[in-house]
Target: Sugar transferase
Amino acid sequence: MSKRAAASGVSHDIALLDRRDWRVSYAARLVATDVLVLIWVVFGVQIAWFGITAADVEFRGSLEDTAISYSAISVALIVCWTIALGIYGSRGYRVLGTGWQEYRLVAGSTTRLFGLVAMVAYLFQIDLARGYIIIAFPLGLAVLALSRWMWRQWLGVHRMNGRYSSRVLLVGSEASVEHLARQLSRQPKAGYLVVGACIPSGLVAGHLPDTEVPVFGNLDKLQAAMSAVRADTVVITSSDELPPERIRELSWSLEPGRQHLVVAPSLTDIGGPRIHTRPVAGLPLIHVETPRFEGRNFFAKRAFDTVISGILILLLSPLLFLSAVAIRLSTPGDVLFRQQRVGINGRSFRMLKFRSMVTDAETLLADLRDEARTEGNAVMFKMKDDPRVTPIGKFLRRYSLDELPQLFNVFAGSMSLVGPRPPLQREVDDYESHVHRRFLVKPGITGLWQVSGRSNLSWEDTVRLDLYYVENWSITGDLVILWQTARAVVASDGAY
Model:
């Protein structure tokens, strides 16, 4: 074989290795970034606190004559901090790209290191400058979190194009494989790219319906299928036709450290904090906490709503005034639009909005409902080009400024900042029984429906997101949704 051919083969192998080991290269980028961030923060704080000239650490007791410069302390702190971030798994592939676990691990490792430094300083009577430590750790944590967020945006862009993702081979019944393939295709940023499927029954061939995902037959062809599509992850979507012994054999056949086995239980739309795995008698039992709709968390949510809505009303009062003036000068009629909506426990309340339509909008609604049904939402009325919307109303809707008066609803207690969309009574009359679970919490100005497509969502997706929120909400989750809402409003995604 010629040198050129050999070189070509080596290049191909290296390229293949790189595609399979994207986790390693990405983790290396995180290590380099963490080190640069910590050097910048720790030495920056040292220079700001002590000046350019390196100061010495003061010792008490028997070590009083010991001389160690703060530069050496800074180097040791950077090394230990970098190691701690690795030990606690903040760069592990399981936490990359989605969720809050990566940030929790960064915060946890930083907090533990801070405690360790304090304990060592006490035991060895090291008189560390309090300002140096108190500034370095919080600032370092903030900049580390920011750098991880920036890398996450970079990773998300690449995952949207099919790169830096686990190449997944699905194994299970035809129905479960199709369902999971659809779910994963909706969330490319989660990092799971479905490249093939094996159906244990062997009854399916060709491709999964409405996809380009090839089906390779039964489990006897699993290894050949993994090689054909270069899969590095096997996801078992159902175990009806896979006894425990067969799953164990499947895990043994995977290459350690390079190929991974994931079991997807038949649990959908359940938040991570409610799921706990507990091994019992060699069985990994999954405990699912039932959702709670009362207690201290709801008291905290009400307090949060009251304080934040009050602050926002004060801060946004000039914008509220200007919007009201623009509506009054541009079209005849009231500035505010008041409408009965259904809230918590099915109770009606009067919701406030800036008027964005002509004054006889309700009388024109009947003629438009049939047209709206053809746009994919037979329950909730939404039209992309609603002729009733005024020019100023179109601008207000584009940036969700028409929703701002609902801050008064939140302050009064009939709504929340985050929650399901508040429906009309005529929409509730068409609800199926399970959809009524939306009324277990207060409706919100924004919610998962707002940050997941807004008016572009189908009715089924709107219900799914609302019910997911109802059963899995948290204060932390509300903060994330509020942040994502601000981004969606600025970008005016899906608003009309």
